[in-house]
From TrEMBL:
Biased segments, Basic and acidic residues type: 1-11
CDD domains, per database record: DszC
GO BP terms, alphabetized: L-leucine catabolic process
Family annotation (InterPro entries): Acyl-CoA_DH_C, Acyl-CoA_Oxase/DH_mid-dom_sf, AcylCo_DH-like_C, AcylCoA_DH/ox_N, AcylCoA_DH/ox_N_sf, AcylCoA_DH/oxidase_NM_dom_sf
Keyword Flavoprotein in annotation: yes
Highest taxon of source: Bacteria
Protein name, per record: Monooxygenase
Lineage of the species this protein comes from: Bacteria, Bacillati, Actinomycetota, Actinomycetes, Streptosporangiales
Oxidoreductase recorded as keyword: yes
Domain Acyl-CoA dehydrogenase C-terminal: 253-390
Molecular function as annotated in GO: 3-methylbutanoyl-CoA dehydrogenase activity; flavin adenine dinucleotide binding; monooxygenase activity
UniProt xrefs under SUPFAM superfamilies: Acyl-CoA dehydrogenase C-terminal domain-like (SSF47203), Acyl-CoA dehydrogenase NM domain-like (SSF56645)
UniProt entry keywords in alphabetical sequence: Flavoprotein, Monooxygenase, Oxidoreductase
Length: 416
């Protein structure tokens, strides 16, 4: 994929947001997200084809303030909940799954300090990224070997390679994770992305999610103060169940990405059907317009009903996990965590199955001419199919099944 930079936002694009007050309610933030989504939708097909590094798209997320949605109000952030963050991510994903993924991952990595950090670390990181509207990426891929961390006096030194590092190239801050040499201690740290020790492979060239900059990265002698090792006090970490909520949280990021892509597919197809699709003239019950064709009406009714059902389940999961994420970190129990993970697993599998059906069947109700590359309906299926292979959905079904039959909650892993 080309790593050539897209055009930077114009002055008019930047000032369009600067003279407007920061949203203060969930509804206002969702309206802001809808505005950003509409901007992204205008040239989504062309940008998907070009596959350029999404500098301007990330700048749009910054200029609009969406990157600060979860940040403290006192530092210029939205002070909103994860329930709203998921819905904002979903809205952006309707227009562009790649940018929706980048925003969802940003929210996850911006919250990493809350999952793991000390109160002092939380305060420092949240002020830093919120006041500066910094964007997060992450070099954390459990399927690869852990980064090797060595201790050098008051510093930690990270080295290694990760196959995937979504968003890091367009980020201001990158989350690193590795294991301290000679121990079993996993350490997370947040570092500046623009440094010689982070070398991007520029090798992301997949059929979908083409603008996520999810290629490989080499970490070469990146130094971090021991004071910045997330959650470590006197070089020791005190674990909480809350620490493990990062996994169901990101799994629900995935789920909202899939749902948003599917919603965008159906909305885009419906607009095409209204404007362009022709009725079938050989059925014996000829109609003047495609919107009056019985099989088209039946298909849209079926697909929309399924999406509404998925949305209800996803929103239920978002409400439940948000309450825990914004609650007392010390109070979270293994049972609470496990039941949330099961609910997220159920929502994820339904979003994948329904999303793949929607993004495939839309061609049946738009017609042969809708397969033209210029229409770009294929991007929805390509995006959803690509990312939904992140981890096998069959394991999510098994987790739900064991909960139903055996009352077993899933053990925390890197994917659950």
């Amino acid at each position: 994929m080309s790593t050539e930079q897209t055009d930077r936002p114009t002055t008019d694009q930047k000032t369009a947001w600067s003279d407007r007050p920061t949203p203060t309610t969930a509804e206002e933030w969702l309206e802001r997200a809808a505005e950003v989504s509409a901007i992204l939708a205008v040239d989504a097909v062309e940008r998907d084809r070009a596959g350029k590094t999404p500098y301007s798209e990330v700048q749009l997320l910054k200029d609009s303030g969406l990157v600060t949605l979860l940040g403290p109000v006192e530092h210029g952030g939205g002070g909103q909940t994860w329930e709203t963050a998921y819905r904002v991510e979903r809205e952006i994903s309707k227009a562009d799954g790649s940018i929706g993924q980048l925003l969802g991952y940003h929210y996850l990595w911006a919250w990493a300090v809350r999952f793991l950090g000390t109160p002092e670390q939380i305060a420092a990181v949240e002020e830093l990224y919120t006041a500066n509207r910094y964007f997060f990426g992450g070099a954390v891929n459990p399927r690869d070997k852990d980064l090797v961390i060595t201790s050098d006096g008051d510093e930690l030194v990270f080295n290694g390679r990760k196959t995937f590092s979504t968003g890091s190239k367009v980020s201001d801050l990158t989350v690193l994770e590795g294991v301290l040499e000679g121990t079993d201690k996993h350490i997370f740290a947040i570092v500046p992305s623009a440094q010689d020790g982070i070398v991007y492979g520029d090798d992301w060239d997949n059929i979908g999610q083409r603008l996520t900059e999810s290629g490989s990265v080499r970490i070469e002698n990146v130094r971090v103060s021991w004071d910045d090792a997330a959650g470590y006090v006197n070089r020791e970490f005190r674990p909480l169940v809350y620490n493990t909520l990062n996994l169901p949280t990101i799994q629900l990021v995935f789920t909202n990405l899939y749902l948003g892509i599917a919603q965008g597919a159906l909305e885009t197809a419906a607009a095409y059907t209204r404007s362009t699709t022709r009725p079938w003239p050989y059925g014996g019950d000829n109609k003047d317009s495609a919107v009056d064709e019985w099989y088209i009406l039946e298909a849209y009714g079926d697909l929309q009903s399924k999406l509404w059902a998925v949305e209800a389940l996803v929103d239920r999961a978002g409400e439940r996990i948000s309450a825990i994420l914004h609650g007392d970190r010390e109070a979270v129990t293994a049972r609470q965590r496990g039941e949330i993970a099961v609910l997220v697993a159920a929502a994820k599998q339904r979003a994948i199955d329904t999303g793949l059906e929607v993004s495939s069947r839309i061609f049946e109700v738009t017609g042969a001419r809708a397969t033209a590359s210029s229409v770009g309906l294929d991007r929805f299926w390509r995006n959803l199919r690509t990312h939904s292979l992140h981890d096998p959905v069959a394991y999510k079904r098994r987790e739900v099944g064991r909960y139903v039959l055996l009352d077993e909650i899933p053990e925390p892993t890197w994917y659950t």
